[in-house]
Amino acid sequence: MPEPSATAVPFTQGTLYFIWQSGIKPAPEDMGQDEVPAKNLYALSPGKTPDTWTLVPILGDIRCECSPKLSPDKSQMAIVLVEDTNQDGYFYTPEDRQTLYIYDFSQKTLMRLEHEDLLHKFSWTHDNHNLLYQYGANLGLVPADGSPPKALIENQRSISEGALYEFIRAIVNSPNGQLQVVTNELGVGTAIGGFRPLGNVQLALFDPAQASMVPIFDAKGINNILATWSPDNQWLAATLIAETQEIYVIDTKTVTAIQLVTTESLKKRVYPPVWSAQGNWLAFIQDKATLWSWHQPTTTVEQLASKNFVGSPVWSPHEDVVAVSFKTDEAGGILLANPAEKSLAELALDSVPLGSPIWTPDGQWLLFPAKQNETTGYYLIHRQGGDVYPVFDTTGLYEPTDFFWLSD
Q1: Which position among 30, 170, 261, 396 has the lowest Cβ density within 10 Å, counted as fewest Cβ atoms?
Q2: Under a CB-based contact definition with an 8 Å cutoff, are residues 301 and 294 in contact?
Q3: CA–CA distances in Å: residue 330 to residues 322, 344, 348, 353, 368
Q4: Parallel/antiparallel/unpaired status of strands 300-306 and 308-315
Q5: What CA–CA distance (Å, rounded) separates 9 from 365?
Q6: How far is residue 110's CA from residue 383's CA, in Å, rounded to a whole number?
Q7: Which comes out higher in pLDDT, residue 91 or 29?
Q8: Beta bridge partners of 161
Q9: pLDDT tens for residues 341-372?
Q10: Is the dihedral of CA 309, 312, 315, 317 positive or negative?
Q11: In Å, how far are 8, 20, 68, 390, 403 from 56, measured between CA atoms?
Q12: pLDDT value for 297
């Protein structure tokens, strides 16, 4: 397992968890595309002095595409793992079963859940005890304690040629867990049992307690909608993906949609809008070059800055500033924008940022991936600037993913 190359890091609170694939990263032409790779869940804990950090593997040799999801109380993590179902020693998604597992952080236990084989998407419910999951065009509920699952909405399980078919693209849990926003796509069955999308995508609110689905937004001629809840459980930020990308905000109480901007083509990576901690602000990047904010109380949109941005904007825990990495001809930096005060500050770096920064829970430090000459790694800088501290080295290794902080 990879180890950190340096430990001279300022003190902060909490524990940082992330997924990291084992081994040396091969050249692109030598990388296999079929087998699901072995990865590890790590915990990076700061000590009481700036030079003491501890990197500990929590789960080893897990086979996953990952994107784990925390329960609302952050005591448990749900993750889909690939099992070697045919016991041939290889992990291939088409041949091997994908199964939901629950990791309990306090008990340090990993539990396998029984559920429908065709699992694709899942989301926690507000009670921290159940997961809503999708199989085909159906929705089910599986208890996190291992009890038998139950069906909530059952549609057709097989696809007939020429028949209309509603496919669930995504399920996103509201912050309080009482509602789910479901992305549905309409399509037609093909002769070989496949699914041909018609370009009609719908957002709907699903109430697990009532097993009711209420449409709130329809779009035609698009490929997908990415939706993000506001912290107050009222608004949705929706990114419509097609030849262009359109960003809307939707009031789920009044079912009112407001278009914010249109961005360039589908070929560019999509970075969904990001809500501030209290939900008063929304930040988003247009065409990788312009940072915008939307103020929820006044519903006003404002351009904040233009740069060669890298990754998504990230709000501080205190909602006062939004941080986003950027590149320059020489190196790069991190921009801090305060939309309320209409102020900008830059943290200049002698390295090139490789992605979005990560705030520490106290809102004082930023962890960020960067490259300097032939070295890559994660570094820490204070929001007021000053020294840059190396945290761990990733040179020649795979990039860590799925970062999240938990309180001690």
Answers
A1: 30
A2: yes
A3: 23, 21, 11, 11, 18
A4: unpaired
A5: 10
A6: 37
A7: 91
A8: none
A9: 999 999 999 999 999 999 999 999 999 999 99
A10: negative
A11: 17, 12, 18, 17, 14
A12: 95
Q: Which residues pair with 406 in a beta bridge?
A: 15
CA distance 13 to 319: 18
DSSP state of 92: B
Span of 166-175, 247-256, 397-406 with lowest mean pLDDT:
166-175
Q: Contact at 8 Å (CB) between 336 and 291?
A: no
The residues, any chain, with a CB within 8 Å of residue 347's CB and separated by 6 or more, are 333, 334, 335, 336, 366, 381, 383, 385
In 3D, which of 78, 57, 187 has the Cα closest to residue 124?
Answer: 78
Kindly tell me if the per-residue pLDDT of 117 is higher than 90: no
pLDDT above 70 for 177: yes
- pLDDT at residue 8 is higher than 50: no
User: Rounded distance, CA 336 to CA 307, Å?
Assistant: 12
Cα–Cα distances (Å) from 338 to 4, 237, 241, 283, in that order, read 33, 20, 28, 11
Model pLDDT for residues 151-165, shown as the tens digit of each residue: 887 765 555 666 666
Q: How far apart are CA 204 and CA 219, in angstroms?
A: 12
Residue 88: burial class (beta carbons within 10 Å; 0-12, 13-18, 19+) = exposed
